[in-house]
Specification:
The complex is a heterodimer of chains A (about 150) and B (about 425).
Chain A: H1 3-10, H2 13-25, E1 51-53, H3 69-73, E2 79-86, E3 91-100, H4 109-113, E4 119-121, E5 136-137, H5 139-144
Chain B: H1 2-6, H2 14-17, H3 20-52, H4 68-78, H5 89-105, H6 124-145, H7 149-179, H8 192-201, H9 213-228, H10 240-243, H11 253-278, H12 293-300, H13 302-320, H14 328-347, H15 351-380, H16 386-413
The chains are: A alpha+beta (about 150), B mainly alpha (about 425).
Chain lengths: ~150, ~425
Amino acid sequence: MTVKEITRKVLLLDLLKGLAVTFRNQNPKEIYTEQYPLQRPRVAERYRGAPRLGVNPDTNETLCISCDLCALACPEHLIVVTSERNPATRRKELTTFTYDLSRCMFCGLCEDACPTDCLELTQDFELASYSREGMIWDRQTLERGPQPTKYER
Amino acid sequence: MQSFLSYLNSKLTPGEAGNFAWATIYILLIFTGISVAVIAMNWLERKILAHMQVRLGPMRVGPHGLLQPIADALKLLIKEDIMPAEADRVVFWLAPVIVVITAFTVFIVVPFGPTHAVTDMNIGVLFMLGVSSLGVLGIIMAGWASNSHYPLMGALRSSSQMVSYEIAMGLAVVSAILMTTLTPDGVGTLSMIKIVQAQDQQQTWFLFRMFPFGFLAFFIFAVAMVAETNRAPFDLPEAESELVAGFHTEYSGFRWSLFFLAEYAAMLAVSAIAVTLWLGGWMRPFPHWLAGDGWDAFFSFFPAATFFLLALIAFFGTVRMPKHPAFRIQKAGLGAFALVLGGIGIVLLIPAVKDRIQDIYWFVAKVSVFQYAYIWYRGTFPRYRFDQLMKLGWKVMIPMGVAVLIVMAAAPAFNFVW
C-alpha cells in the first residue's frame, strides 16, 4: 500500500466522500417524485392511449362512416362495427362499435386506416377497470372518452 | 407545598434534594419529552432518508406527512397482537418490557442542565452503561422466546455484536473519565453532572483535550455507539435482506412498537452519554472564549430563535403549498403548526423561562446533531458483513481504545498534559 492509500484509509476519506454525496442530495430541488393524482405526468406527444371515436362538434353526429376499415386493419380483430343502411339517404349509418381494450396492443393501425380521422388513439392513459367486461368499450364510452374516478374532495 | 416551592430556589437536582414531587414531575417531563422526540425522529428519519434518496417521503397524512408517525402509532395500537403458538409466552411478554424499561431508566442520570436531572449519582456513567447494556438481555429473550429461526439468529448476532462493542465503548468512556482528573485538585468523578463541570473548569470540551487522543476516544465511542444501538451500518441483528427483521420478526402491533420506542430511546441515551463526556453537556458554545454578559445575552436568544426559524419554515411551507382545494385543510393545519411553534418561541423569550431553558436547549441541540448523524449514516453506508464487523470491533476499535487509554493514563503521570 502506498502512503496515499494508507492516509485514505486512516482518515476515512472514502466514508466522508460518501457522506458528502448523501448530504448534497438532500436538496429538495433534486426530488424527482411526482405526486400522481394531483400532479399529472406529461405524456409524450406521440403516445398512443385510450381510443376515441370523434364526433362532429357542431351537430354531435359521429364522424364514422362504418367503412369497417379499422376492423380489417386490426391485427387482433378486436374491433366490431355494425351498421344499418338508411333507406332514405342510401348511406350506411353506424349502430354499434365495440373496441376490446383488453386485447389491444396500441399499434395504431386502426387509426391509420380510418379515412375520416374518426378513430384516434388519444393520450389518456388511465385505462384501469374493476372487471374484464369494463375493458370492452362500446360506442358511448368511445365517444365520451374514459372517465376515471377523480380523487378530489 | 412549601418544599415544592422552595425547591425552585435550591441549586440541586430533585434526587439530591430528596424532593419526591419534583422528581416525579421531572420523570414525567423526561418521559413525554423522549416520546415526542421519538415521534419527531420517526418523521425526520423518513423525510431525511427520502430526500437523500431523491424521494419525497411521507406527504399524504397531514402537511408534508407531519401526522404520519401519529397515524402509524394508532395503526400499531389497533393492530392484532399475534403471539406464535409455540412461543414461550411469559418470556415473549417480558422481552419488550425489559427493553423499554432499560432504555428509559437510563435517562434518570442524564444531565440536561446543572440542576435539570432526575438525580445525580456518583456512579452516573457506570449506571448508564450498565443499565443500557441490560437491554441485550431483552433482545436475547425476544429472540429465544419467539421459537423461530430468524429471531434466534438475530438475537445471537445482536448479543455478540453488543458484547464486543461494549468493551471498546467502555475503554473510550474510561479514557474520558481519566480526563476529569486533570483538574487542579486531581480528583476524578463518575457523576454525569460533575463530568460536565470538570469540562467547564478545564475550559475545554474533552473532545479537544489532549488532542488527538480525546478525539480518538470520542471517535471510538461514536462508532461503538452506532453498533450498540443496532443501527445502520451495523444493523445486522435486524438485517432485512437476511433475517427478515431479526429479533422482532415474530412481534407485531403494540409489542413491536415498544421495541421501536426502545431503539430510539437507546439512541438518544447513548448520544446523551457522548454529549456529556466529550461535547461539554449543557454548556453553550465557547463559554470561556466568548465570556461576558453581552455574549451570554446573545446566546440566550438561541432557543427562541430556533423556534422562530422552525415557525418560519412551516410558514413558508404554507405559502408554497399547491393552490388546490384539496390542500385547504392541510394548509390551515400547517399554518396552525407554525403559529404554535412561534408561540413556543415567544414563551421562551420570557426572562424566567429563558434563563431556565438555556442548558436544556444546548444539551438537546447537541444530542440532535447525533440523531441527524445516525440518519445520515443510515442513508450513506451499506451494511457490514458479520466477520468484518467483528474484525473492526476486536482488531481495530479495542486495540485503539487500549492505546488511547494508556496514553491518557500515562501522560499525566509524567506531567505531560496538553
